[in-house]
């Protein structure tokens, strides 16, 4: 039924013209971010390190259309011209595809040479050579969970010849700039000196490793099976805490694809009875597993808690698309990867015969990840679906590297790796020598995948659905770059192997959404939230067919929104690698969906209306408007201290940006945060031990968002429970501010903890729940 609806929508989509009516973008802090030795000695630095931060704070953006006025021009190679606009964004024009991407490699190296170096070290498992001994374990994860050179070469050999040639041209462009700085030492980024790193030539393999990292880590990261197991063990294997805080299908879940457009179960749709039976079977198996130390329950920390801007960090993001009268459409995308200097993204524009594209990508990859061409605009957000599983391998007694599978003893595939480290000097140019060293580690794989931990007689190995196929995503993105219609995007989406949500609009006003990637067909008789037995009885039944992955084109409601929520009704949460997926009606996308629906409801929405929509989305604590009805209901019976707190909350709009003359925000900001904590403590009290395994704060990009515990509390507490939480909040606020007067419960404006990857330190950045990069577009005929 769903496939038929999508086909009908495609059949009605008219061919696109070539009109981008309005386009603006912002990439705070700026296009550059590193300091040359010339800039360091002169006290100047890069003029484009932070020049986009101030407009970002003021909700202003720069023009994002093709061929902005040039402030500089150079021709580094025959057939290649590079101009740069007022913000230093390069516009590369090539005589052909290879010339253009060679120029792109050159321009990206000019802006982000040391970032390329940092990415290379990280994806080789050599991060500790730049950042010091503390990252040895992070490097171990890279050696353990990714590929040997021979395995990577096999992926490379499966790429189309034209793309292999493009990778070589991009490499040559990077190396041309490296040759330049070798002969012009004052153009060397100062970070090379600080980390005593050498200027080595770039290779195609370096770009491939970056592509693999991005496809594997940004969309989803690893799972949380060991956290869930630890929670069960703390509760004596009673499943109440798991069912409350991590339901397989949250009640009233917010999905991007409305139910009216069809449902997309992840594999076979299961009844409630089947879900319960699978849970009970997995509980019995889990009872045989050894106790889970807290350190192992946080096994994903090395991938999920990297600093903003570092490759390998799991991302978030928001986006919306709205159809408008006159065959127009609006598209917004704000990928949220944490603010850093420089950012993970770099912006550029590339033109060649048959290719006109502008947007952002990661340094090292010759393809645009997010942006627009003359016909189509598109954006991405992390899909955050659970496309990997943890298998508990039963070890042979007395054998660390042998395990049982299908009734036979198997040997793990193991190898020793050497991890080198070098502690950086404390100051630049001081002549100090770093401390250096190395250590040898052993990494193993079973039939299921990399062994990530061993507890007693069990080895935990992770199986990835995308294993060995990450680089296919580069092909799919290249097809998106060249798309002329929404139909072209649909075809390209089926080639993507990563789980990044894709949303697009074409210049005839068609919009679409895809939740692509490779996702496993799990065995129906086992609970997806817990480790699976590795003995061969819980194997996957294959992968979800591409045509059955969630997607929709031109939904009847006329708009789409996504903020990392579930893609469709019927889709499950897996083991909860993304806690925001289990918040039900309080999911942050519920607020973004309200705004998108309101934009669609305007008689003739304008680009200014889109701008105002995004301002509201990025400056309001999303759950406060969503909780209005419950707060008002609780207020009607409240007295005393509870009434005072509920009065503060109902009077507050949710805006955490507006400040008074002293730079402090509305009392509702701090009160709301304290109220959510009090409500969560009250709601999870019946299973406090198990609840400790679950997170207690939202991600750093979503300071005012909600946790799984808080969402559970807001949707399950009665009005009396709300009043009890409010009374507890009053005591906490009085203690914090030293006064019972709510008018004085004003805190300073929340600031963002920006990570500095280079020598140039960032200026202060007030917090917004907004994209690391933002693009707003209006397309039409």
TrEMBL record:
Keyword Hydrolase: yes
Domain of life: Bacteria
Keyword tags: Hydrolase, Signal, Zymogen
EC number: 3.5.1.-
Regions crossing the membrane: none
Family statement drawn from the similarity comment of this UniProt entry: Belongs to the peptidase S45 family.
Protein name per its UniProtKB record: Penicillin acylase family protein
Native source organism of the sequence: Patulibacter brassicae
């Amino acid at each position: 039924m769903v496939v038929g609806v999508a086909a009908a929508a495609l059949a009605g989509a008219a061919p696109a013209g070539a009109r981008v009516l309005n386009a603006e973008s912002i990439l705070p802090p700026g296009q550059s971010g590193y300091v040359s030795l010339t800039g360091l000695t002169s006290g100047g630095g890069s003029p484009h390190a932070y020049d986009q931060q101030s407009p970002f704070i003021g909700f202003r953006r720069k023009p994002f259309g093709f061929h902005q006025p040039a402030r500089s021009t150079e021709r580094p190679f025959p057939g290649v011209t590079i101009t740069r606009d007022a913000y230093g964004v390069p516009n590369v024009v090539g005589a052909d595809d290879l010339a253009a991407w060679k120029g792109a490699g050159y321009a990206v190296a000019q802006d982000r040479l040391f970032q390329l170096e940092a990415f290379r070290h990280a994806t080789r498992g050599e991060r500790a050579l730049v950042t010091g001994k503390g990252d040895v374990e992070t490097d171990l994860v890279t050696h353990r969970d990714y590929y040997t050179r021979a395995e990577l070469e096999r992926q490379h050999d499966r790429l189309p010849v034209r793309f292999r040639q493009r990778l070589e041209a991009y490499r040559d462009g990077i190396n041309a700039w490296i040759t330049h700085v070798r002969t012009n030492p004052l153009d060397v980024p100062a970070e090379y000196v600080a980390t005593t790193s050498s200027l080595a030539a770039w290779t195609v393999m370096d770009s491939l490793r970056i592509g693999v990292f991005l496809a594997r880590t940004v969309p989803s990261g690893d799972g949380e099976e060991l956290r869930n197991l630890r929670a069960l063990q703390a509760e004596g294997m009673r499943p109440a805490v798991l069912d409350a805080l991590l339901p397989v299908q949250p009640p009233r879940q917010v999905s991007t694809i409305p139910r009216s457009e069809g449902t997309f179960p992840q594999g076979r749709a299961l009844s409630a009875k089947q879900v319960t039976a699978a849970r009970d079977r997995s509980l019995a198996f889990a009872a045989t597993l050894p106790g889970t130390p807290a350190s192992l329950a946080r096994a994903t920390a090395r991938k999920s808690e990297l600093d903003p801007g570092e490759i390998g960090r799991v991302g978030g993001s928001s986006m919306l698309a709205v159809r408008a009268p006159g065959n127009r459409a609006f598209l917004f995308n704000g990928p949220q990867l944490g603010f850093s200097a420089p950012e993970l993204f770099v912006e550029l524009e590339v033109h060649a015969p048959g290719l006109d594209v502008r947007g952002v990508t990661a340094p090292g990859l010759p393809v645009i990840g997010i942006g627009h061409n003359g016909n189509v605009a598109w954006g991405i957000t992390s899909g955050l679906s659970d496309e990997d599983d943890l298998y508990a391998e039963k070890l042979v007694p007395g054998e660390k590297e042998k395990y049982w599978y299908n009734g036979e003893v198997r040997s793990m595939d193991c190898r020793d790796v050497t991890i080198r480290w070098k502690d950086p000097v404390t100051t630049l140019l001081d002549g100090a020598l770093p401390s250096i060293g190395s250590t040898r580690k052993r990494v193993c794989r079973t039939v299921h995948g990399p062994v990530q931990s061993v507890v007693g007689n069990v080895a935990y190995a992770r199986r990835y659905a995308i294993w060995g196929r990450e680089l296919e995503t580069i092909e799919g993105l290249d097809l998106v770059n060249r798309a002329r219609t929404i139909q072209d995007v649909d075809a390209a989406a089926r080639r993507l192997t990563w789980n990044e949500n894709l949303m697009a609009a074409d210049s005839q006003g068609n919009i679409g959404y895809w939740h692509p990637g490779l996702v496993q067909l799990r065995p129906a008789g086992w609970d997806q939230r817990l480790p699976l037995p590795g003995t061969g009885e819980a194997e996957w039944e294959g992968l979800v067919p591409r045509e059955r992955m969630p997607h929709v084109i031109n939904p009847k409601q006329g708009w789409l929104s996504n903020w990392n929520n579930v893609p469709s009704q019927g889709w499950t949460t897996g083991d909860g690698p993304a806690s925001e997926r289990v918040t039900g009606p309080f999911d942050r996308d519920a607020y973004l969906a309200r705004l998108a629906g309101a934009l669609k409801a305007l008689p003739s929405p304008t680009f200014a209306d889109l701008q105002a929509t995004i301002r509201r989305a990025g400056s309001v604590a999303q759950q406060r408007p969503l909780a209005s009805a419950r707060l008002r209901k609780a207020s009607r019976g409240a007295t005393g201290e509870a009434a005072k707190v509920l009065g503060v909350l109902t009077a507050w709009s949710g805006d955490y940006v507006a400040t008074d003359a002293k730079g402090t925000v509305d009392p509702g900001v701090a009160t709301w945060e304290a109220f959510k904590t009090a409500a969560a403590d009250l709601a999870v009290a019946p299973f406090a031990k198990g609840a400790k395994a679950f997170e207690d704060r939202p991600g750093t990009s979503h300071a005012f968002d909600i946790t799984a515990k808080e969402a559970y509390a807001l949707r399950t507490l009665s009005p009396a429970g709300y009043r009890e939480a409010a009374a507890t909040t009053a005591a906490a606020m009085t203690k914090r501010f030293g006064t019972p007067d709510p008018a004085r419960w004003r805190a300073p404006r929340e600031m963002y903890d920006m990570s500095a990857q280079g020598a140039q330190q960032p200026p202060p950045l007030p917090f917004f729940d907004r994209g690391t990069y933002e693009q707003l577009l209006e397309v039409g005929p």
